[in-house]
């Protein structure tokens, strides 16, 4: 095991955690400006004053936001799931399918699905090559290829579910483009792609363009050096999660919003194994599922240094007339910059045409410096219209999209809003899923920062 400064340390009881060497891997987006000096920092979800994502703005009259299945908190349940994002909601779904007679309580500290799931850029894009080198270094060739395969399978399952159940969530399926706009990054990208091919990675579905002239023409990005394109999706993440949770409620799940889980202790006075203590009372249970992602280490101290919270920002842009209608952007993008900086672009081209910019753009480093100023800032999602991040997006679109800089913007067009969300960085770049060591009946699913 390798960890920072301690070869024998145990991270959450896990003995095979390899922290990535970010200095040598320029394509690892989530490592860009994402290695906080204090990996042990954590905190509870902010209560009041948090920014409102575009997705949450669209559903302000939905009663699911503050739903409580019962007026009072149940005192007893077979399973308590903490967190109502896509992870907690899917755990509840599969729990019902496996043990339909067992009782399930889902606790949410704030509004339903108001954490990372309800705050991202709406991009459902399986990584199909770019992180191969990092995973190969940490886990070996075979496992690295399996991680890429799992991402593809997960995306296929998501699309199949939405289509089978006719979920109203603005699903778009089309070609995404990974586009390096720097010569050195293009060279690194090509080397990484070829290593993935040599390892047996599946690439038949990926369209590759190495000619910069052709890449610029196909991508509509002026400085494109290459393109790696395959099928991916964008969607409205809150609406998808809400659809699944409504089905869960119909089958007996008890959802309790605005209920903060404060601690978990062993139950020494009753038949149940655990007591989940909340600000509204206690729930005794046999199974606890930690589905709070970035906040996991707040309730489970052994995860400090394993799952680390960090604020990120997403921008919503209404395109001008010259980028609307038949001239609207028709692909989603992952734009690769130097040092792992990255723009995730979701054009919502089958919905309202608003363009979402996420990822780790160069302004993220300054945001990270700010978040290191106090312990509370690592979980501060009150940030909105943050200029240090937005100006980097503006600089990018004016530089890369031909005609954007000179376009006329009327009222209601242009950069309208940005909001923040808290991502949960995992120590080795992949999610942590499984039972907590020495705590039988407590399970964790966390570290989903784009993986």
Key terms:
alpha/beta, D-Amino Acid Oxidase, Chain A, domain 2, FAD/NAD(P)-binding domain, 2 domains, globular, disordered N terminus
Describe the overall structure.
This protein is an alpha/beta fold. It folds into 2 domains: 22-40 and 171-235 and 307-426, D-Amino Acid Oxidase, Chain A, domain 2 (2-Layer Sandwich), CATH 3.30.9.10; 54-118 and 238-291, FAD/NAD(P)-binding domain. Helices cover 25% and strands 22% of the residues. It is built from 10 helices and 18 strands. It has helices at residues 54-57, 86-98, 132-139, 141-164, 183-198, 212-219, 237-250, 296-299, 364-371, 387-400, and strands at 79-82, 104-107, 123-124, 172-180, 207-209, 227-234, 254-256, 261-266, 274-278, 281-285, 287-290, 307-318, 332-336, 342-346, 355-358, 414-426, 432-435, 442-446. Strands 3, 4, 5, 6, 12, 13, 14, 15 and 16 form a 9-stranded mixed β-sheet that branches. A 6-stranded mixed β-sheet has the order 7-2-1-11-18-17, covered by helices on one side. It has a 3-stranded antiparallel β-sheet with strand order 8-9-10, with no helix packed on it. Strand 1 (79-82), helix 2 (86-98) and strand 2 (104-107) form a beta-alpha-beta unit. Helix 3 packs across helix 4 (141-164). The protein is globular and about 70 Å long.
